[in-house]
Each structure stands twice: as C-alpha cells, then as structure tokens.
Design a protein that fits this description.
Elements (H helix, E strand, L loop, with lengths): L10 H8 L5 E7 L17 E5 L2 E6 L3 E5 L4 H15 L1 E4 L9 E5 L9 E5 L2 E6 L2 E8 L22 E4 L4 H16 L5 E11 L7 H10 L4 E5 L2 E5 L2 E6 L2 E12 L4 H13 L1 H18 L3 E5 L5 E4 L3 E12 L1 E2 L2 E2 L2 H8 L7 E2 L1 H11 L10 E6 L4 E5 L3 E5 L2 E10 L5 H19 L1
Parallel strand pairs: 1-5
Antiparallel strand pairs: 1-9, 2-3, 2-12, 3-8, 4-7, 6-7, 6-22, 8-9, 10-11, 11-21, 11-25, 12-13, 13-24, 14-15, 14-23, 15-18, 16-18, 17-18, 19-20, 22-23, 24-25
Length: 431
C-alpha cells in the first residue's frame, strides 16, 4: 500500500481528514494490581477490546470515528489517522506501545461494499507485563480522572436459537466440491470458503457477555470487539513493535477429541498431512511475499509447529522481519496489514483467482469477517489480527462465521466438520 506521506489524497480522504477533531490526550500510569480485570472494566457504552491472557487494551466511549468503504478503505484510514496524529496534543507519561493516542479498527474482507471502521475511544486502559495505564481522549480539557472499577456485569443472552445462514450444510458441501473441481482443472491452487450461522436471541445481545466467555475459554487467542465485530482470533496478521515486524500464519486444522493421548496422535497426523502442509505452505508463502518489500531482513522458519487450542489444533508458523524506513518513518502496522490482506490463509492462491471464486460460489457477503481487526498507536506500532472465530452482533441477531482452506484433495464432508468445529467458540460463548 502506498505510504500516506507520499501518496496523493483522494477527495474522500480529504473529506475524512477535515472531519478529524483536535484531540487532547493524556496517559498516566496506574497500579497494575488496582481495579478489575481489563474486560471487567468495560461498560456497555461503545466497548472495544484487544486482550490476550489478561493483557492488552480495552476502551469505551467515542472521541472520534471514521467509517470508510471500498477498495480505498485502508488508504483512507491511514490518511485520517495521520491527520488525527497531527492535530492531537498528547501527554504520555508511559510511552509503551498502546499508550498515548490509540485507535481500534475493523476492516471489511472485500472491496465491495468494504464497510470498515476506525474508532478512537474516549478512555483506553492498557496492561502490559508489570505496567498498566489509563488514557483519556477528548476534544478539550473536560475529560478528567478515571476510576478503574468493575462495570455492571452483562446479562446472558436469552432464548438463543440457531439457523442456517446463506447456505445449509448440503449446499455448502456442493460449493466445496465445485471449488475442488476448479482447483483440479488448474484454475487456482487454493481457496478459502466460509459459511455463516445465524443466532437469534429474545433481546439485544450485550457483546460483553461473549467477550468474557471467549477470553476465559480461549486465553491464548486475541479476544476482540470493534463496532459489533466480536471474536477470539488465534491468528496475528501482523504486529509492529519498535521496528520489529511479526506475523503468525495458521493454515491446516484438525479437531481435538478431549483425550490427551489421542490428541497427541492427531497432532502428529496433522504435522505429516500432505494436504494440510500444502495448504500451510501457500499461506506462509503469501505472507512472506507480502512482507518482504517492507522489511530489510526476514526470518521464515522451514517447518511449522502445531498450535493447540481448546477445540482444534493448527499448523502454525511465525514470520519475522525488521521494518524498512521511508522518508525517515517506518511503515505503520496498518499499512503492513493492508499489504498482507487478503493472505492465502483467508483468501487463497493466487489471490485474484481465489477472491473471484469466493464471490462467485460462497453466496454471502463476508462483511468484516476475515478482515484485519486490531489497534494502532500514534507511532504506527500496533497489532492486527484476522477476524476469525468471530461474529457480527446487530441487536438480537448474531451472525457467526467459519471458513476452511480448500485444496485439490479436500473432502467436502471433512471440510463441513471442520467449519462446524470453528463455530464452537462463539456458539458456546452465546449459550
């Protein structure tokens, strides 16, 4: 993606920049043991979250927001954030990644319609190792001290029922079979097909309920919420921290049984599976190729490891590099996320052919599912995951998503079973 300092501004980007308010930002350190757990602090007022193993960032309220869409959504967000940084007055006593001015974002998978959002909360609380802090953000000096106390707890969703989304199981298996046929014909090498599941509750769903359940059940994942998009992703699309760039690639999955001995055997099966290793290789290659132009050096492990989650196991590879600097500034984490999206892990290989096939046979709009979700600070440091194991919450309706990588020897019934396993985290969090 072009660097925002050198690329021309479109009329939409200029309009977005003019809408940026002048923000006053103050970050102060607090006792790491004071107050409640991060997610317990969240009120119902526009909560945002990026938490893993009790650390990360949460926020609430809205100091500024940008809604953008289409193929320029990342560039528009980058320009808007640059303008927000330039117009802000920041007093940061902590100076950690995630302190000072911070935004949270959730971006659409596809270009059309591509509805995406970037939010600057009014309050952000961070925890990292033995340090914790609170940031207040406002349009003047009216914002004051924040007491870190647990908010009123959310109520559980009531009378939740589930129904098929765009395709039922048989129809989705037919789509998988068609994808295998196209791959076998040489049209492409891999495609990721997703399906949705609809949950309907008796009353509006408080997103804080599934957030807490997901964080408790999947502590090794990044539990997120931005503007109705909620989930626990195991996949770090990209992290930039003081010049170091890392990306965790997951592709190749097997369901756990709950029996430790049997699961150890299945982990060995996964590590030797030619189908899963092929799928994983495509995903790693796409990430390495996308990061290489932005990094001065890179480390790509030769073989993946097996990542154990409560419900499934994945083949995983951590790719690392050192960010290039351009005109005295390193590429931002959001620009890196834009360069990586969509990776083979959520789109396929080649990307253009895979995305076209998804639009043709998936029969649904993914919205922000499988798009980048995360946060960024004023230095450009940040963490962007892929919105997997996720759902879109809209009042009393929750739309769950799950996807599977399809290659030449994929079996439709096995892929359906894998998709069902990937629904489990959010489904269980609602019930």
């Amino acid at each position: 993606m072009p660097h925002p300092r050198s690329s021309p501004r479109s009329p939409a980007q200029l309009d977005g920049e003019r809408s940026v308010p002048a923000l006053v930002v103050r970050t102060t350190e607090v006792d790491v043991d004071a107050g409640a757990a991060l997610l317990d602090l969240l009120p119902a007022d526009d909560p945002v979250s990026w938490v893993r193993r009790g650390e990360g960032l949460v926020g609430w309220g809205t100091a500024a927001v940008l809604r953008t869409q289409g193929p320029e959504r990342f560039a528009a967000a980058a320009h808007w954030w640059q303008a927000a940084r330039a117009r802000s007055v920041v007093r940061d006593e902590v100076r950690e990644p995630g302190s000072g001015l911070v935004c949270f974002g959730s971006f659409a998978f596809g270009d059309d319609p591509g509805d995406s959002v970037l939010v600057v909360p009014a309050v952000v609380v961070g925890r990292r190792g033995d340090r914790a802090w609170v940031t207040t953000i406002g349009r003047g000096l009216e914002h004051g001290e924040q007491r870190l106390v647990a908010a009123d707890p959310p109520e559980a969703p009531r009378s939740v029922t589930f129904s098929d989304g765009a395709l039922d199981g048989e129809q989705w298996m037919a789509a998988v079979a068609e994808a295998v046929r196209r791959i076998s014909a040489g049209d492409l090498e891999k495609v990721v097909l997703a399906r949705d599941l609809l949950a309907t509750a008796a009353t509006d769903v408080d997103v804080r309920w599934p957030l807490r359940r997901l964080a408790a059940g999947y502590p090794m994942c990044w539990t997120f919420h931005v503007d109705g998009m909620v989930g626990a992703t195991p996949e770090m699309l990209v992290r930039r921290e003081r010049g170091l760039v890392t990306s965790r690639v997951l592709a190749g999955t097997i369901r756990r049984t709950g029996d430790d001995t049997r699961d150890a055997e299945l982990a060995g099966v996964l590590a030797r599976s030619s189908k899963d290793l092929e799928e994983h290789e495509y995903a790693v290659r796409s990430v390495a190729d996308a990061l290489e132009p932005h990094c001065s050096s890179m480390n790509v492990p030769e073989a993946p490891f097996v990542l154990h989650l409560p419900n499934v196991m994945h083949l995983a590879t951590d790719v690392a590099g050192v960010a290039h600097e351009s005109d005295g500034a390193a590429v931002t984490s959001l620009e890196l996320a834009a360069a990586l999206h969509p990776s083979a892990a959520v789109g396929g290989t080649p990307t253009s052919a895979a995305v076209a096939l998804i639009a043709e046979i998936e029969s649904m709009d993914r919205g922000r599912y499988a798009g980048p979700v995360g946060w960024m600070d004023a230095t450009g440091d940040g963490e962007w995951g892929i919105a997997l194991r996720s759902a879109a919450v809209d009042g009393s309706t929750v739309r769950l998503f799950a996807g599977c990588g399809i290659v030449a020897d994929s079996d439709p019934a096995s892929e359906l079973a894998e998709a069902q396993a990937k629904f489990v985290p959010v489904r269980d969090a609602l019930t």
